[in-house]
Design goal:
By secondary structure, the chain is α+β, with helices and mostly antiparallel strands. The protein contains 14 helices and ten strands. The structure holds adenosine-5'-diphosphate (ADP) and magnesium ion. This is DUF3669 domain-containing protein.
C-alpha cells in the first residue's frame, strides 16, 4: 500500500461522517471508529485505514508488531479464507514532521499540531446497505428507524460477533439512538441477520474463531488479549483462492478457474483486529496459564462452555474441535509430548473454570497445570 497512490483519489466533496470541526478544506480522512488506544480514520473510496494513537504509551507500536506477527504467522497454515486480519503498511512515530508535513491537511484540524503516532493498515470495509437495512428492520425500535437509516455514521457498519452470549432481553428499547458502527450480533443471530449468498457465505463463525485462537496461541505465540472479531467486507480478496491442501487433493492439470471465480463485489469475512494488548505466550505451562486467564476474563466473543446440555455446548464443541484441529496440525512436528498436550490442557482449564465459576485469582487458580492434570486424569 503506497500513500502516494492512496492520495491520488481526490474526493469531490466531503464524505459522510464529517463533523462541523472537520469541514475545513482538504479533510480527506474521516473518523470511522474510536477506542481507548486509538482513533481510526478512513480515506474515502480506498481500502486504507489509519489508526492514530490517543496517547503515547507504546500500545500502538505493540499493535504494529503483533499484527505483523499475526500476518506472518497465519501464512502457510491451513486456515479458512473467510478468516482475515488487516494488512499493515507502516508505522509513523510521533512528531515525524516529514510524514506529518505532507499529510496533516488530510486530517481534521484538532490533530494537526499534535502529530501523534499513526499505524497505517488495511480497512475492513463496511457491511453493505441491504444488510444494514435488515438489521434496522429487525433490531431498531420503531420510532428510531428513520434516523438510523439516514444517519451517515451508520454507513461505517461493522458487526461485532459475540458468541458467548445471547442478546439481552431488554436494552435496545431504552436507547436514545441506534448505532451500527460496531453493532453486536449474538449467539444464534449470524444466520438470521445475514442473508445467504456467495458474497456473505461466512458460516461456522465459531470454527473460524477456534482456528484463529489456536493459530495465535501455537503459531504466533501470543495470548490474544483484547483481540476482537467483526464481520466486515474484504475489498482485496475478490478471488476465492485455493489453499495448497485443496490443490494437492485435485487431479493434476485440471482447470481450476471454475473453483476460483472472481466476484464483482467485496466478500464478507470474519476479521480479527485490535492486537495492542497482546503479549508473548511461552510454549509451556505458564503460557497456558496466561492464555486461560485471558480467555476466561475476555469479553464474550468466543463461545463458552455451559453446565447445561443445551445448544451453547454445541457451539462450544465446534469451537473446541476447530481449535484442537488447528493446534494439532501446527504442533504436528513438535517433538515434546508435553508441549503437544498444551492445547488440550488449555481447553480443559477453560472448561473447568468457566463451568465451575471458580475464582481465577484464588491460590488454586495459580496452579492450572496441576488442576488440569487431575481433570485430564478423570477424562482419560
Ligand atoms: N482496520 C479497520 N478497518 C475498519 N475499522 C476499523 C479498523 N480498525 C478499527 N476499526 C474501527 O475502529 C474502532 C476502534 O478501533 P480499535 O482497534 O478497537 O481501537 P482500540 O485499540 O483503541 O480499542 C473499532 O471498534 C472499529 O469499529
Ligand atoms: Mg485495543
Amino acid at each position: 500500500m503506497d500513500i502516494s497512490q492512496l492520495l491520488c483519489d481526490s474526493p469531490e466533496s466531503l464524505p459522510n461522517g464529517s463533523t462541523a470541526d472537520d469541514t475545513a478544506a482538504n479533510v480527506l480522512f474521516q473518523e470511522i471508529g474510536r477506542g481507548s488506544c486509538g482513533t481510526v480514520f478512513q480515506h474515502n473510496n480506498t481500502t486504507a485505514a489509519l489508526k492514530v494513537a490517543n496517547k503515547e504509551d507504546g500500545e500502538l507500536w505493540n499493535e504494529y508488531l503483533m499484527l505483523a506477527r499475526v500476518q506472518y504467522g497465519f501464512k502457510n497454515i491451513n486456515l479458512s479464507h473467510n478468516l482475515r486480519a488487516p494488512d499493515i503498511a507502516y508505522f509513523v512515530s510521533d512528531g515525524d514532521s516529514e510524514w506529518w508535513d505532507s499529510h496533516e491537511t488530510y486530517f481534521p484540524p484538532r490533530l494537526r499540531n499534535m502529530k501523534p503516532q499513526v499505524l497505517y493498515i488495511e480497512r475492513i470495509l463496511p457491511i453493505p446497505a441491504p444488510i444494514r437495512q435488515r438489521l434496522i428492520d429487525r433490531h431498531c425500535p420503531e420510532d428510531m428507524k428513520a434516523n438510523a437509516r439516514d444517519d451517515p455514521l451508520n454507513e461505517a457498519c461493522l458487526l461485532r460477533v459475540h458468541l458467548g452470549k445471547r442478546r439481552p432481553e431488554s436494552g435496545l428499547d431504552q436507547l436514545r439512538s441506534f448505532f451500527l458502527r460496531n453493532f453486536t450480533i449474538y449467539q444464534g443471530e449470524v444466520g438470521e441477520d445475514i442473508p445467504g449468498g456467495q458474497r456473505y457465505d461466512v458460516r461456522n463463525v465459531e470454527c473460524l474463531m477456534g482456528q484463529a485462537l489456536a493459530a495465535m496461541h501455537w503459531k504466533v505465540r501470543i495470548d490474544a488479549d483484547g483481540v476482537k472479531f467483526v464481520l466486515g467486507m474484504d475489498g482485496k480478496s475478490r478471488w476465492h483462492h485455493l489453499v495448497p491442501s485443496q490443490i494437492a487433493a485435485l487431479p493434476e492439470n485440471i482447470s481450476t478457474w471454475p473453483l476460483t471465480q472472481s466476484t464483482p463485489e467485496p466478500m464478507m469475512r470474519l476479521w480479527l483486529f485490535d492486537s495492542n494488548r497482546c503479549k508473548d505466550m511461552p510454549k509451556n505451562g505458564k503460557g497456558v496459564q496466561q492464555a486461560v486467564q485471558v480467555f476466561c476474563h475476555s469479553d464474550s466473543h468466543f463461545p463458552r462452555p455451559s453446565r447445561k446440555a443445551d445448544s451453547n455446548n454445541e457451539l462450544w464443541h465446534k469451537f473446541v474441535n476447530a481449535y484442537m484441529e488447528t493446534a494439532n496440525s501446527i504442533l504436528k512436528d513438535e517433538e515434546s509430548i508435553s508441549v503437544k498436550a498444551l492445547p488440550g490442557i488449555f481447553i480443559i482449564c477453560c472448561t473447568y473454570w468457566i463451568t465451575n465459576d471458580e475464582n481465577m485469582n484464588s491460590e488454586e487458580s495459580k496452579k492450572p497445570l496441576g488442576k488440569a492434570q487431575s481433570a485430564a486424569d478423570e477424562v482419560y
